[in-house]
Amino acid sequence: MHERIAIIAITETGIALGHSLKSLLAADGFAGCGLFSSRAADGVESIESVAAFVRQSFGSFDAVVFIGSLGICVRSIAPVLQGKHSDPAVINCDESGRFVQSVLSGHAGGANALAGRLARLLGAQAVLSTSSDVQGLWPLDILGREEGWGVEFASPVAGESITTAMAAFVNHEPTTLLLDIRDSLTDQLERTAPPFVTMAYRYEEVDFSACRLLLAVTPRLIEAPVQTICYRPKVLCVGVGSERGIDPARFVRSITAELAAAGLSPRSIRGVGSVDFKLDEEAFVAFAQACGVALTGFSPEQLESAGPVPNPSDVVFRKTGVHSVSEASAALLSGENRWLVEKQKVALAGVPEGQPRHYTFAVSLLRGAERRGRIAIVGAGPGDPELVTVRGRRYLEQADLILYAGSLVPEKLTHCAGPGALVRSSASMPLEEQFDLMEQFYRQGKFVVRLHTGDPSIYGAIQEQMAFFDAEGFEYEIVPGVSSFQAAAAVLQSQFTVPEKVQTIILTRGSGRTPVPDKERLSELARARATMCIYLSAEWSDEVQAELLAHYPPETPVAVCYRLTWDDQQVWRGRLDELSALVRQSGKTRTVLLVVGEAIGARGGRSKLYDPSFTHGFREGHGA
């Protein structure tokens, strides 16, 4: 957001801090940063005076950072201020770098966010004074800006504006948040809603008798009896087709009116698509430009492969080689064979018969945006509840159903479940029973978390579950987890890759009840002498040891790791030729990971990354 930043230093001490801040900003990705001062110094762009520089250049920067007294900052910018939507962000930092204060354009100009970022770079205290930030409330005027949401205000009362709506919000007046779609930000809004905000998921659910302000995240046009801020998420995908050469201006007016008649806001359009040989159609180009999106072309083969559409046309097929342009394009853009608006055929008003005037359009909702059931396959980590990922923990708190692998996942990991959530262990449940339970919750539009040990993609047995979800058309995602091999490295205080010695980690299992391919037998993998983490194999430790000794030296370090990071975790260390004896000594065969390799406990070697003579993308090497 801030591509051009001016740092204005008042004193010698300020110049020194300015140099440091400029370097930190450059390392943090801010390339267009300049340091200015009326004092001559190396690396400083000389200016006649601070006041003159601000007067001449204020509008040329996205952000201005003063290093010095707040009074100088205020007196310098006062004569050139225009308005909150045009003024750059202004920050003031004392010359000792203790406080970083947002002075101007805290929300619209991003000064609050930049002040926080500068404070983190300097180890300073950010000073923010806007009411929403002080109270920890949402900044309504810029909410969703980073996600590309549009913002619109409407009120049945004359004189009200988004400013009066923001005042009502920071004064805790009864507010309803209408979430008509779902994405990561709406999930965050649900989690962080203040007590005076009531949630609604359909317009019909809103109780306007107890609502002073409506915040609506929706692509749909609504007309509420209270002041309303509508946020327009980019979730509508529009497919278009037409006769060649229709009038661009009439087309844009017409399709915009058709979308409004369907109750949809053009500000929520994410993409416009058509068959690829229509990419030069001026009307389509004009419409995409008016929506601020790209025009996407699909080949006839792609359109035909989009799946069944509700309104195929043999006439269109004879002319173009495809049965559908608008519906198929909308489906391909959205990733979803569902339509908010099926194909509509429209004739442009005011165009005589015989001239190009017909077009079609269809609208789909972006895949995943509809508020319906969803499933997350979450990696629980190795056992310690604090090692589940932040997203995994958040999903556990939000879930309506938590189905966890009770034989492998500690029950206390589910203690963060929200009120009313159903928590079940799948240890004694056949797969079909698990499917029935998850399907029941999913079809009710609820959130299901399937909790697996470690990382679900490593010996997680999720393939058959995903096959079921795919067959039923269920939306799902996989949340990675910390695997037990990573926990082993932490518990063993080892780096499993050692410079110039071991650069490969092998995750595998021995051949027990379930055979492994011959090319993946331990005796074959042992040729690499990599760090090897062997799952599900303690029961066959004699065979494991024998196969590994085919290529690893007998003195190679090994570790037998039982229930890593659990409360009853145990680890036995030794040599490879003692592996089977260590397993017998442990008395454990389940939830055991065997680790083999010279990286265990190694402390020799030095990474090139920190070698002073090594040059890389962020540092020039010096010396031998």
From TrEMBL:
Domain CobE/GbiG C-terminal: 236-362
One MF term in the entry's GO annotations: precorrin-4 C11-methyltransferase activity
Keywords for the protein's UniProt record, in alphabetical order: Methyltransferase, S-adenosyl-L-methionine, Transferase
The keyword Magnesium appears for this protein: no
Annotated Cobalamin synthesis G N-terminal domain residues: 53-133
Protein name per UniProt: Precorrin-4 C(11)-methyltransferase
Location of the Cobalamin biosynthesis central region domain: 138-233
NCBIfam families associated with the record: cobM_cbiF
Record domain Tetrapyrrole methylase: where: 375-579
Pfam families noted in UniProt: CbiG_C, CbiG_mid, CbiG_N, TP_methylase
Pathway: Cofactor biosynthesis; adenosylcobalamin biosynthesis
GO biological process: cobalamin biosynthetic process; methylation
InterPro entries for this protein: 4pyrrol_Mease (IPR000878), 4pyrrol_Methylase_sf (IPR035996), 4pyrrole_Mease_sub1 (IPR014777), 4pyrrole_Mease_sub2 (IPR014776), CbiG_mid (IPR021745), CbiG_N (IPR021744), Cbl_synth_CobM/CibF (IPR006362), CobE/GbiG_C (IPR002750)
